[in-house]
Structure formats: structure tokens, C-alpha cells
Amino acid sequence: SLYNTFVQPAANFLATFLDDETKLPHASYDLWEEKFLTSTYTTALVYQALLVSAELAERFEYPDDAVRWQTTANMLLKGSSVFFDEDRGLLRKGFILQDNGSLTFDNTLDISSLYGSMMFGLAKINSPEIQQTVTQIENILLDRTPSGGVPRYEYDHYFASDPPFLGNPWLITTLWMAQYYVLAGKPEKARYYINWVMKHSLPSGVFSEQVNPSTGQPLSVTPLVWSHA
Fold first, then answer.
1. CA 28, CA 26: separation in Å to the nearest integer?
2. d(Cα 76, Cα 5) in Å, to the nearest integer?
3. How buried is residue 12: exposed, middle or buried, by Cβ count under 10 Å (0-12/13-18/19+)?
4. Which among 25, 10, 11 has a CA at the least distance from the CA of 79?
5. What is the pLDDT of residues 57-89, one digit of tens each?
6. Exposed site from 22, 27, 142, 164, fewest CB < 10 Å?
7. How far apart are alpha carbons 117 and 13 in whole angstroms?
8. Which residues, 6+ apart, have CB-to-CB distance to 30 below 8 Å?
């Protein structure tokens, strides 16, 4: 009952809100609501949304929709190689298309680029893109503060601490690393970070958004729906 009123218009928007030059989604704000760009995360999410929409179209016998959305998804997958930074060996945050047609890259190491790509199928879990990005996260971001855990991205100054670190550990991003280790067949590592999150919950079981990198105390919104989800 929702196909014509929800699935079809939503998927048609996703399939057309694309840049003619890059064949990738137009710029929008990233999931942290901070930067305006074409991000790796958003592209991965749009890719998966189009695949699911194509499956629904097949199920409800709208073959033209299915072909159009599957074709667009394939185009996004083909163009997604632009998101890998060969110099740093990681999935970059994204890029901005300039008026002259050039791309200005944001090569920030952002854990959402890993999460989006692995969870929404833009890259396989054992691909060089995922593996090299994980290596960089482990070397640069993971457990690099006295409190442990992992921040959203390098040089994250939101609720910056004194002394400063590359960023405060967030509960949801640490759980994303646990999800990676589950998919990579490393359950003990996954268990470690799940236990880390439990350790940093309040006695009531409430989860905060992030924790102080020095003391491990809750920071920012508490409880945070996203952390609990």
C-alpha cells in the first residue's frame, strides 16, 4: 500500500538527485550535520536504498522501476572508486564538485566512511578499500586516548577536551567497530568493544553520546537514542 506513495517517489528522487558530471549524489550535509559535500557514507546509503527499492519493484511487478533503480545503483557502485584515497590508503570523507568541474577532496579519516561502505555494500568486507581503512583507523583513532574507544573522525573538536586529543570516543562509533569485527570473523575483538560500551554506561543502563577521553565520564546528550539504537 506504500509503494506508490512512498517507495516510488523516494527512490525516484534518489535516482535523479545526481550530478551530471560525477554520476554520484549531489552534495548534502554529512550524517554528523556538519559538512556539506558528497560523502562516502551518503553514497553508500543511496546505493543500498536503490537496491532495496529495485527488489520491492520486482516483488510488486513494476519492472521499469526495478531496471531503472538497479541501473542507477550499478552506476553509483562504478563511480565509487573516487572515494578511495590512494595516498593515505583509506576511504576518504568525500568531495565537493567545483564550478570548473574539478573535485576538492576531503581526505579526513572518518569512521562513517568505513561503516557506510561495509554495511550498505559499497565495498566488500575483505576488499583492499575496507582493509586499508580499518588499518588506518586502528593506527590513528582506535584506543588512542586513556579512555579507549574510537572518535567520529580525526581532529574532531566537538566538546574538545583539555588536554586535546584527535577526538572524543563515541559509543556508536565504537559499536560500529564491533560490527566490523563481527563481519570480519573476529568475535573476541567485537566482544571487547561491546563490553567497552557497557562499561561506559551509567548505572541505570543509559548510554551517552560520547565520553571524556581522559576520564571516561559521559559527555553531551545522555541518553542518546542513536547510541541505544
1. 7
2. 25
3. middle
4. 25
5. 999 999 999 999 999 999 999 999 999 999 999
6. 164
7. 21
8. 36, 37, 39, 41, 42, 93, 94, 110, 112
Which three cell numbers, joined as nine digits, stand for 79? 563511480
User: How far is C-alpha 153 from the geometric centre of its chain's CA atoms?
Assistant: 11
HSE (CB half, 13 Å, CA atoms) of 133? 31
> What φ, ψ does residue 72 adopt, rounded to 5°?
-65, -40
Q: Phi and psi for 94 in degrees, rounded to 5?
A: 160, -155
The 10s digit of each residue's pLDDT in 195-222 is 999 999 999 999 999 999 999 999 999 9
Task: At 229, list the grid cell.
Answer: 539504537
Q: Which residue has the cell 581503512?
A: 133
C-alpha cell at 153: 573522525
d(CA 7, CA 54): 10
